[in-house]
Amino acid sequence: MTNNQKRQDNKIPILQVLFVDYYPFRYKPCVEIIIEKSGIILIRKTQQRYSHLASWMPMVFLNAVWLLFGSAIWIVAQEAKSDAQMGKDPRLWMWSVGSLLAFCGTIACKVWVLDILDVAVHMANEMIQMDLELAEGIERQCPSKTTRFAGIFESLTIILYFSPPITLISVFSNGTDPLYHIFMYLMSFEQFASFLKHFLLPGFGKMFQLIFIILMLWPTYNFFMYEGVRIFVFFISAAVNLGAKATSILQKLVNQIGEHRGQKCFQYYNRFRIISQSVEDAVKLSVVLILVAIGMMLCAFAFLLARLHGRGSPLMLVIHGCSVILSVVILEQLLTMFGHCDYLCRQVLQRCRNERRFIGMSRCQRMLYRKEVRSLPGLILPVGVGQFSLSRITKDSKANILFYLVEIIGNVLIVF
């Protein structure tokens, strides 16, 4: 291994640096990435005070967010004179996306953080260790598409890290803040308005009170935005890294079987089966949530981009355009990754059943080998999301899915 490759292996991920080591509010997530001097990457639970309370923080935050967006949507629906007017309101689409993303994040946090966090961390380290064991004695290959995507993902992570203040300013300037809309709706009630008047101090005290409220709301809003961005980035990163690690392991198994070095392959199949079965239901549910959320983002932000053309702030148009591009990139990467995993599964089965592997075996050895090969579909196909129908994606079916989403977006734009 060259010195340049060693420096790359010991490079600390930008996700770890920004959202763990230098997180602006000094609040750490439940898990973190650890890189040792040897370059081995490990995942462990974060050591912090009140860990049980900290594990509930994302759940409380996400529930508060989707309830906030849901309340704002209900108010818009009450104020709209007709369904057509309600459907043409850009705020409804923005808040619907936010509510859906927060609701999907709530389910994912419940499944991964509160239910099986210890199991997920242990299985992730098992996959890392298995990939390292299979890589021993194999020359370093060309970087895969997922490895090249890592550079794009790092750039997106940096952009998202600095995006919350800019997004808040554009949201406030465009009048699409849900909390402000709820506050103005409550001000229409005489009881709430009179209570607020009694709450405010007279004279110059009112000015200092308003300054204090603004100074309290700004960091609170920033914390909510940063936490939402971090949860989104961590879930997308976990999905991409899970698929990349499964693809890497399957590719190494295919190479070893093809090079007649597959004496221990069945042991790795058993380890893979244990890992996949332990988190299989959670992975399937997470894949559904991610694809639904990204599909909704793609449709809604494309609609907003068309509806807000010529109106609203230019910064909001840039944000919506970047959101559409981000959704397309992530969706294309996930579809490609699932399809490649399923293709590698079929390659492993095909190579294991090759009759040339029987050369030099005795009759008893051939019988034992055939018996093990017959059990392979139950061992290899559940890997990651192998049994999930969305994983069986080829280039043609992936194109059909993307064209289907484009057709939906076009129909929605024509209607409105």
What does this structure look like?
The chain crosses the membrane at residues 53-77, 92-113, 149-172, 208-225, 231-254, 282-306, 312-331. This is Gustatory receptor. Keywords: Membrane, Transmembrane, Transmembrane helix. This protein has 416 residues and is mainly alpha-helical. It has one domain (3-415). Helices cover 77% and strands 2% of the residues. The chain contains 15 helices and 2 strands. The chain has helices spanning 3-9, 14-21, 51-79, 83-87, 90-115, 117-135, 145-174, 178-187, 190-199, 204-258, 265-307, 314-352, 363-374, 376-380, 395-415; strands at 31-35, 41-45. Strand 1 (31-35) and strand 2 form a beta hairpin.
